[in-house]
Amino acid sequence: MAADRKTTVMTGAQAVVRSLENLGVEVAFGIPGGAVLPLYDPLFDSSIRHILARHEQGAAHAAEGYAVATGRVGVCVATSGPGATNLVTGLGDAMMDSVPIVAITGQVNSWAIGTDAFQEADIRGITFPITKHNFLVRSADDIPQALTAAFHIAATGRPGPVLVDITKDALTGSTAFDWPAEMDLPGYKPTTEPHVRQIREAAALIAESHRPVLYAGGGVAKAHASEALARLLDVAPMPVVTTLMARGVLPDSHSLHMGMPGMHGSVSAVGALQRSDLIVAVGARFDDRVTGALDSFAPDARIIHCDIDPAEIGKNRAVDVPIVGDCRRMLEELTGVLRDGDQPDWSEWVGYLDGLKTKYPTWAGDPEDDVLQPQEVIRRIGEIAGPETIFVTGVGQHQMWSAHFLPHEKPGKWLTSGGAGTMGYCVPAAMGAKAGRPDQVVWGIDGDGCFQMTSQELVTCAVNGIPVKIAIINNSVLGMVRQWQKLFYGERYSNTDLHSDRVPDFVKLAEAMGCVGLRAETLDEVDGVIAQAMEIDDRPVVVEFVVAKDAMVWPMVAAGASNDDIKIARDMAPDWEDDDL
Amino acid sequence: MSENNPVATPEVHTLSVLVQNNPGVLARIAGLFARRGFNIESLTVGPTEREDYSRMTVVALVTSDAVLEQIIKQLNKLVEVIRVSEMERGKAVRRELILVKVHADASTRTDILAIVETFRGHVVDVAADSMTVEVTGKYGKIHAMLELLSPYGIKELVQSGQVALARGPRTITDRSKFDRTPKSQRGTAS
């Protein structure tokens, strides 16, 4: 009853803060500025912990890191114009990887919109394609409703970023604050419950298949469906591959886990997809980095595709059984139906893939080389830090090695920029993760190129007591680009040498930013510095590992090539030996 | 989007899109088509029987059913889109409006009038050496009239996009039988 509700007259800025508090926001990352200044005044007295970032891109990635590590909506705040445009990369990243964040931006006064006012940018227009939805709020009265809707949209259905742009006069204006705010979203009704008939059809296809494979994507992680997946495998023991976004949703040590598929996937995982007669895709989207050339991707496979986003189904690959719904619900329902049926014996198929797994392990570096091998460094970090650690990566070679050589045994412990491939993600995302999960050890595995894009957030970490640990895998080059130049551009290394073997001095840089700086250059120094880093919990630690410049990521499927043409090392193809299958 | 057959002849499909009447919603939809490489022949937007809704009619050129399905799904994903419905051939009324300024002097005026009347058009402006004609109808009718008028010399013309409404008692807010998305996949948004 409206008459019973107590309304309080307050400013729009106070309404923002009150709404955020009511929505359960505990942490926000941001930087103030002219247009958003009115918001920062009541924020000063709020229970919300605002962490002052050093660049808005850092604030956006931190919100992402916070969201993935905690399962809650991450929040970032920026002012109008350049403050808002600096969020763009983080919003785009969150859009590609379905990360629930809400960005709040100040906007110039409503009457100045469209006049090219100081620090004016049409951030709503700019972010149309890279947000799940966005709002421009011109009146204080609309603030509770817009923020309520923003959090709802960000967190439900296929999660994603939502931007709320609020004019300065809306922040300074006065409103009778009314809570809870009613949302007006007649066009937004995500389908979460899978259709029973589709589940039965899926079960029927599974019961007929001889070489099934479950292709688990990031949606399984988003839906907290690890348990449900494991239970399905108890009744239907089919091989599983986990994409880059899904690492950890099934323990790598699980006997049915065939590894990560894709351009740098393992032979067993790529082979499992290519040679399957049925793909059960769950929360995955047949990304080009997984399928390779689409026309030769898994040519014999029928497709069951479950996703909460109907637009993903049939987008890249035609589907036999489409299932719209939440991945966890789908896996649970499917398990329920399959329990009654008899599955064919898949042990020969599993045995074949196991053979590939044993025969073609991921290339772990050249043991003869006396220069430190990056794969070995990453493996040791994983072993010493253990599977309880939250691992965060940048983008490139170190990311692929991290996907392969870290212990992916638990869900929710792996943060990486997949769809967008955003260099610079690691340090701020690690900051966000640690701010959200201060009880957990957070290790960032970064490259020397990535690190130099957003390293200033280590200052934020040092000042705000966020003791992340960052490993810089320093090969002094843009390693992945250089790998492509080596393979496809006749070893012409155009503009990929960062000279970061000389400049910067990462140890000094770390110390200048208030962190502990450590360095290892030989194998016998590796364990020592990792152990030292593990001991430190009162400050951020940066550990530089000086590694081989020419280490390459193998296996590899060249861009645009067929998955069948996967190479386990340069010019070396695996022997499939599957004539009998 | 998989364009498996690049030489496939594009087919014309008409989609009705019911949207919340919010500022920027047109830009969102136009942007979606541009960004995803969907081809639009025409797009119209206007008010509806409800003040808070607008209705768009999009005429799209698509090369396969998969593309059409993807357009519908991507439109449905937009938070402000309430309903997308295909206006299938023969099951919907479609109309366009054209204004055309034709060269016309005393010697040709009568002939032009005869053509216009045949197509149940109207003369809406007359000057010494021109006439402006308004006609509404299906694409084919408008095209036929233009062909007959062109020998007189068309000075300029302007054409609206198509508007369309399904025949019969059903409305777009009913669960539309023209919805091409299989029921099982018909999540309205995610």
Please give the structural blueprint.
The complex is a heterodimer of chains A (about 575) and B (about 190).
Chain A lengths: L7 E4 H11 L4 E4 L6 H7 L5 E4 L3 H15 L3 E5 L3 H4 L2 H9 L4 E7 L15 H4 L6 E5 L5 H13 L5 E7 H5 L1 E4 L18 H13 L3 E5 L1 H5 L3 H10 L4 E3 L24 H8 L3 E5 L5 H4 L10 E6 L13 E4 L2 H12 L8 H13 L14 H12 L4 E4 L3 H9 L8 E2 L10 H11 L5 E6 H7 L2 H7 L5 E6 L4 H10 L17 H7 L3 E5 L2 H13 L5 E6 L35
Parallel strand pairs in A: 2-3, 2-4, 4-5, 5-7, 6-7, 9-10, 9-11, 11-12, 12-13, 14-15, 14-16, 16-17, 17-19, 18-19
Antiparallel strand pairs in A: 1-8
Chain B lengths: L10 E10 L4 H11 L3 E9 L5 E10 L2 H13 L3 E7 L4 E12 L5 H10 L3 E6 L2 E8 L1 H11 L4 E6 L3 E4 L24
Antiparallel strand pairs in B: 1-3, 1-4, 2-3, 5-7, 5-8, 5-9, 6-7
How would you describe the overall organization of this protein?
The complex is a heterodimer of chains A (581) and B (190). Chain A is of the alpha/beta class. Chain A folds into 3 domains: 176 residues, Thiamin diphosphate (ThDP)-binding fold, Pyr/PP domains (Rossmann fold); 164 residues, Rossmann fold; 173 residues, Thiamin diphosphate (ThDP)-binding fold, Pyr/PP domains (Rossmann fold), CATH 3.40.50.970. In chain A, 36% of the residues lie in helices and 16% in strands. Chain A has 23 helices and 19 strands. A 6-stranded parallel β-sheet of chain A has the order 3-2-4-5-7-6, with helices on both faces. In chain A, helix 17 links the parallel strand 14 and strand 15. In chain A, helix 3 packs parallel to helix 5 and helix 12 runs antiparallel to helix 15. The longest helix of chain A is centred in the N-terminal third of the chain and has 15 residues. Chain B is of the alpha+beta class. Chain B folds into 2 domains: 77 residues, ACT domain (Alpha-Beta Plaits, 2-Layer Sandwich), CATH 3.30.70.260; 72 residues, Alpha-Beta Plaits, CATH 3.30.70. In chain B, 24% of the residues lie in helices and 38% in strands. In chain B, the strands form 2 sheets. In chain B, strands 5, 6, 7, 8 and 9 form a 5-stranded antiparallel β-sheet that branches. The longest helix of chain B has 13 residues. The two termini of chain B are 19 Å apart. The C terminus of chain B is likely disordered. The interface between A and B is large, with 38 and 34 residues.
